[in-house]
Structures are given as C-alpha cells and as structure tokens.
Amino acid sequence: MKQLSAILKMSPERIVYILDNIDSFYRQKEEKKFDPKKGSFKTYKNGNLKIRIINPSQGDLKLAQQRAKNRILSKIALPDNVHGGTKKKSNITNAKVHQGNKYIFATDLQEFYPSISSKMVYDAFLKLGYSNHFASHLCKLVTYKHKVPQGAPTSTHISNIVFLQTDRKLIEYCNTYGITYTRYVDDLTFSSQQDFSVHTVELMKIVCDNGYKMSYRKTSYSGEQTITGLIVQLNKIDVPDSIKYRASLEKDDPLQPVTDYMKRVTSTNRHNYRQ
C-alpha cells in the first residue's frame, strides 16, 4: 500500500477509504450504441435503440485511476500489433497496416470489458512481476463489481494488459503462416496476400480458448471491407459514405471535426506518408 500510495501521490488512508466505499465513486449511465458504417445509432429489429450501460469513475477514484494509467499501466510494453489505447496509434494506423492485402478476416470480441474478470486482471499483474499485495490493491482500483468497468480511464489499458497472452499466441501463429494481425481494443483483424481461410477456425479457437467470446455477426472473411470504421482497399484507405455526408454538413462549423478526421485518413494515402 505504501508503494502504491507513493506512486499515486495519495495517502494510504485515502486509498483504503476509496476501496471501502467504491460504489460511491462510480456512477451509472446509459449510452446509445453508434454504428460508424451507417453514421447512425444501432437499433434492434423492432426499432428500439441498442443501449450499453457504462460506469464512469469520479472524484478521487478517477484521479487515482488517471495516475495509475500514466505512471504504471502506460509504461508496460505492448506488442506492435496493438493500436488501441497506445500513443501515436489509432483506428487509422490499425486499418493502414492491412492495405494492399487481398484477403481480410475481421472479427469482434463480444462484451470485451465485462468479460474481463478481476481475477484475470490480478493474474495479469502477477505475471508482470508485481507482488501479491500490490497486484491486489491495484486490481481493486481498476475493477468494479468483479469486472473491468466501461467508462473508467484505465479500462482500455487493463484490457490490453490482460489480452497480452492471447495477443502473443495469435502473433506467433500468424508469423508462422505469413498473416498480418492487428488489434484495436476489441476489433481483431487478420490479412494476407494469400488465401488463409483454412486458418480462420484455428485463429478463433485461440481467442475462445483464452476465455473470450466472439461476435459471429461481426465476423467476416473477404477482400475489401471495413476495418475499425474505415474502408481498406488495395491501394488506399477511405472513410465510409456516411462520414463523407456528415463532413458535408460542417461547412458552417469552425472546428469541422469530421472533416478533419476525413483529411487525416486520406492523408495516409500519400506516397511519403509515415506512420
């Protein structure tokens, strides 16, 4: 506790108080699910909006989590294939890696954060060399109701750390068969110049054997397709038509965030572009 207290610059008594009263440091709210491909909110067949429950942290817990993210979690080395929650990487760099590959296999992890239990987080910390007590205290600070909460500043970093073992198995397998693999949080993408359809079952098995569920509705094997919200083609990457339409509505907006995003995507198609 003293070591964690020194890193977080927060007294042991305050940390203990937070952990003993954890419910008061989280709030709950509903968030509508957005479909970047269509540029609209997701709905069920009956027309009702799809909603996810998120639990943002607040007060001193949020402050402790932000410090833990900056001073502990962000310093843990991750493989190059990880593009979510890492500096100078994004959904754009994730998609760009697969440009030029003829065959693409994309899938999505189902309920990714909630599927990561506090035990998985604790075990991951132990594997990184932290002591039992340090791992236990840190685990309690970044999990809620025995799982990784949606909305906490540490959640993406925690998911990357817990998924490390699975990432390494996928990387080893893909390197053996000449397959390019990247992950953007819960989006997994594999590609190659050669048809690797015979390997898709084994790739899914590696993921499922490590305790994760895949969204088979979002799993596809084809050529040109959308990867982390971007259209990947042989010679370029591009934004969907829905994004172009939203950009066209920003003429009177001095900030033009969608237009700026579209420019950042298309700028990667220049020959002198560097990631």
UniProtKB/TrEMBL annotation:
Keyword Metal-binding attached: yes
Ranges where the Reverse transcriptase domain occurs: 1-232
Record has Zinc as a keyword: no
Signal peptide: none
An MF annotation (GO) of this entry: RNA-directed DNA polymerase activity
Entry keywords, A to Z: Magnesium, Metal-binding, Nucleotidyltransferase, RNA-directed DNA polymerase, Transferase
Enzyme class per UniProt: transferase
Reactions catalysed: DNA(n) + a 2'-deoxyribonucleoside 5'-triphosphate = DNA(n+1) + diphosphate
A Pfam family that the UniProt record links to this protein: RVT_1
Entry EC number(s): 2.7.7.49
PROSITE patterns, sorted: RT_POL
Family of the protein in this entry: Belongs to the bacterial reverse transcriptase family.
Matches recorded under PANTHER family: NUCLEAR INTRON MATURASE 1, MITOCHONDRIAL-RELATED, RNA-DIRECTED DNA POLYMERASE
Protein name (Swiss-Prot/TrEMBL): RNA-directed DNA polymerase
Organism of derivation: Flavobacterium gossypii
Classification of source organism: Bacteria, Pseudomonadati, Bacteroidota, Flavobacteriia, Flavobacteriales
